[in-house]
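Fill in residues.
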């Protein structure tokens, strides 16, 4: 059985003080929730204070990006060595990183390898943009991104990572995919590619999230799909009540 995982991607929102306030609210709402793994991904500067607040809670913590080198003269970068003192997860290859910061499939692969080498669990993002979707190229694009991200990753390592299927046209647009549509890409293309790379049994073990305009109203549509194991939530993760409702709905839908 795959334990569902809901991750909140706070993106470039919330000062440290605001992040601390949001975590205090979330702690209350998420106390005693079982049957789901919850991960918060604030900005780098909020990781340390949020880590302290999360210590007694069982709520996980993740970064939104990472450099692949352990250390060195790389002004402005944050390394896996630094992150592993603070958090368990790291989002890698988010479409906003690819779109605005020039991240390539090859760079994402380097980061995935570096994270796994240090025991950080990557949340690897893949997804087609609108033009690719309209051209019927979804499967091709998602498969290419996934194969590239997982190059030289062993079967043992792939068990500890999470994949997020996030169609770019659904992110921040209020236009989510349908549950059935997302399940088809996740079940056939993402799990199908995993099966080709690592075998059918292992492909069934890997957790795959959907992301893109998830909210408390539509989360059940995704969580009742057999191949979708959770969500990567952007905008709705910034409001405590919405994020808590998403987590609660997930538990209900997966029971
Ligand atoms: P959204 O973002 O929920 O605001 O669409 C999702 C994401 O980018 O991970």
């Amino acid at each position: 059985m795959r334990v569902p995982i809901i991750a909140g991607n706070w993106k470039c929102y919330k000062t440290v003080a605001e992040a601390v306030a949001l975590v205090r609210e979330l702690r209350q709402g998420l106390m005693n929730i079982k049957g789901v793994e919850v991960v918060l991904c604030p900005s780098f500067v909020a990781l340390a204070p949020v880590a302290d607040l999360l210590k007694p809670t069982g709520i996980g913590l993740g970064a939104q990006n990472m450099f692949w080198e352990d250390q060195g003269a790389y002004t402005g970068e944050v390394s896996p060595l630094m992150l592993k003192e603070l958090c368990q997860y790291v989002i890698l290859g988010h479409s906003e990183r690819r779109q605005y910061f020039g991240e390539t499939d090859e760079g994402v692969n380097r980061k995935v390898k570096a994270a796994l080498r240090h025991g950080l669990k990557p949340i690897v993002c893949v997804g087609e943009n609108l033009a690719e979707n309209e051209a019927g190229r979804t499967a091709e694009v998602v498969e290419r991104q996934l194969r590239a991200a997982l190059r030289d990753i062993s079967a043992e390592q792939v068990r500890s990572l999470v994949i997020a299927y996030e169609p770019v046209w659904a992110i921040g647009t209020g236009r989510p995919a349908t549950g059935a549509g997302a399940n088809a890409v996740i079940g056939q293309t993402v799990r199908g590619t995993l099966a080709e790379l690592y075998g059918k049994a292992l492909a069934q073990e890997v957790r795959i999230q959907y992301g893109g305009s998830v909210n408390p109203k539509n989360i059940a549509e995704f969580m009742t799909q057999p191949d979708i194991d959770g969500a990567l939530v952007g905008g709705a993760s910034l409001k405590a009540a919405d994020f808590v409702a998403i987590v609660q709905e997930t538990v209900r839908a997966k029971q």
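Residues 9, 166, 171-172, 211-214, 232-236 surround 2-phosphoglycolic acid (CB under 6 Å).
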